[in-house]
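Notes for week 9. Today we move from apo structures to complexes. The key idea is that a small molecule is not decoration. When we ask for a structure prediction with zinc ion present, the ligand SMILES becomes part of the input, just like the chain. The input block below holds both the sequence and the ligand string. Read it once before you look at the output, and try to guess where the molecule might sit.
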Amino acid sequence: MDEYIYLRYQYRIYPNDLQKAKAQITADCCRFIHNYYLNLRSLAWRTQHRSMNYNACANDLKYLKLVYPWLAQADSMALQEELKDLQRSFENFWRGDASYPLYHAKKSTGLSFRTRNQSDGIRISADNRYIHLPKLGWTKIRLSRQVPGIIENATLIQKPSGKYFVSLTVKIASSVVTKRNDGNEHGLDLGLKSFYILDDGTKKDNPKYLYRYENKLVREQRRLSRMKKGSSNWRKQKLKVARLHEKISNTRHDFLHKESTYLARKCSLLCIEDLNIAGMTKNHRLARSISDVSWSKFISMLEYKMALHGGMLVKVPRFYASTQTCHICGHKEPKTKALSIRKWTCPECKAMHDRDVNAAINILSKGQTLLHSVA
Ligand SMILES: [Zn+2]
């Protein structure tokens, strides 16, 4: 039996004015559906202690379309996906992972909705220049590579800069895509100074030009905050900031892709620290929050790419004191906890340590121990 994996690919699309208007209609109807059924579900619970699930909502939607015939102008798959998302928001709330679902307000810029591929409603033209989307029809697309499998769903996105993208979830047989790796085992420490450090001392720094962009973003954002909201200068500046955001996120994205591919090809085993990303994003300093986002993205890229290359990513529990433990004699030195300490000497065995390399070595041996204790 074939196993499948799901990968996401994002492409720029170029809808014409009519297609843009149609996308906006679906986005507006999705927002209406979300708000309408959020209200209905809340009411059912408050007044009758009755829980209204996805199926009940989807069934009710048939009748709602008779009451509001303009809903027929929207992509019906997208409306169903919206109901599924609402169901998921409720499930997250019930589990205690999220707060109560909120109403969606109309955004002044950008849009986003997901639609499912049913009876080939989403497909690529033979010459790879167009994508067929429900309601929009054939839309111009820039494909950087062939779509490698069956398209499951598509998310249509308009970024605040005004550009349109489609993000496709593609189903691929894992036997088709499994690639080889070079069989190395490594420990990796994610850092602030360097992006990552391996146990053999390899350090990979954040790309320098990113700092330039990020500093520029801080400046431009400050300028924006001083302008009169709604004025034409403010609008121009807002677009400038949005474009800068996009540039930074694209550059980051490329960097993360390059590095995760490199590691997935190199390693059969890669051990990393299980980071508490949610806890870290509470830190409001911009540079810090950007790297937090990159780390969680990087880890999810590593996860699927290593699986693709037949390797394994092992997460070492966070409470394991990787930076404070001497990897040679196992002595724990709590003084090294301070981030400012880059190098230290073990008082027990007198070994000299680079803080991050020592941590990466510990992460590797902890990962190897964990792996063998499960096997
Ligand atoms: Zn020691």
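Residues 326, 328-329, 331, 346, 348-349, 351 surround zinc ion (CB under 6 Å).
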